[in-house]
Amino acid sequence: MTTNWLVTGAGGMLGQDVLAELAADPDAVVTGLSRQQLDITDPAVVRTAVTGHRVVVNCAAWTDVDGAERAETAATAVNGTGVRHLAHACADSDAILLHISTDYVLPGDARRPYPEDAPTGPVNAYGRSKLAGERAVVELLPHTGYIVRTAWLYGAHGTNFVATMLELASRHETLDVVADQHGQPTWSRALARQLAALGRAALTGGAPAGIYHGTAAGRTTWCGLARETFRLSGLDPERIRPVGSDKFPRPAPRPAFGVLGHGSWLRAGLGPLPQWEDQLASALKAPAFADLAHAARTTQRP
């Protein structure tokens, strides 16, 4: 029996990977709509787009963290009000909503992984805007709304930290990278695979609605991620030098600790995502990353 899926934000890094993952499912009939094709801040347009779909994967978002600090109202229109429009439309159409959120809804001051029911407390405008979206899903879709928080996402499509490190390796002998922020680097293709599995489990009643943490197992720092990226790419990891966050002041404060627990996956009978090192090793085999690594190994730096 076929199921109609809608992927919003389909032109982004995660959206493209979700489309690719669902394309391999013979029972999935998939519609992908980019930001240009679907403005989630328009409730009438959202209602029309959702009608006829059984599962909606919301990858549409304002993702510019520093930009949100300067334009919180605009960020919240997308990450909060836009998500409310989607949740309303899903409620009217009896559709399941898988909504992508972030560890930034949490205060980032813990020392142990945050469980899914940990108190929220964002430290920046981006986190507040995403929390507004979470609250809309919980309020409007208590039985068919799934909030999947992710963090430190990288992938073959679009700008991300891993690609940036490899690009900079071609131009600089050493790189200073923050070593006092802790998180879980997550490959967008691995998360897409997990989202597809969650959607299928939701359709059969095998996964309860609520909050899930879609991040890799394990933990590291930005410095640790950069060094492992270099090591796996045949570059000297000692070229990465650890520094404090104060070396790179940003408009939006960053939480120091974004490590998340994964209990909901186990309760749903689904395994959590693999270790971050294993995900990174798989991701770096993709042509987009392999080409960057080759260029970094063969470029003469000053």
Automatic annotation (TrEMBL):
Q: Which organism is it from?
A: Streptomyces albiflavescens
Superkingdom in the source lineage: Bacteria
* Family to which the UniProt record says this protein belongs: Belongs to the dTDP-4-dehydrorhamnose reductase family.
Q: What is this protein called?
A: dTDP-4-dehydrorhamnose reductase
Name the keywords, alphabetized: NADP, Oxidoreductase
Q: What does this protein do?
A: Catalyzes the reduction of dTDP-6-deoxy-L-lyxo-4-hexulose to yield dTDP-L-rhamnose.
One term under GO cellular component: cytosol
Q: What is its EC number?
A: 1.1.1.133
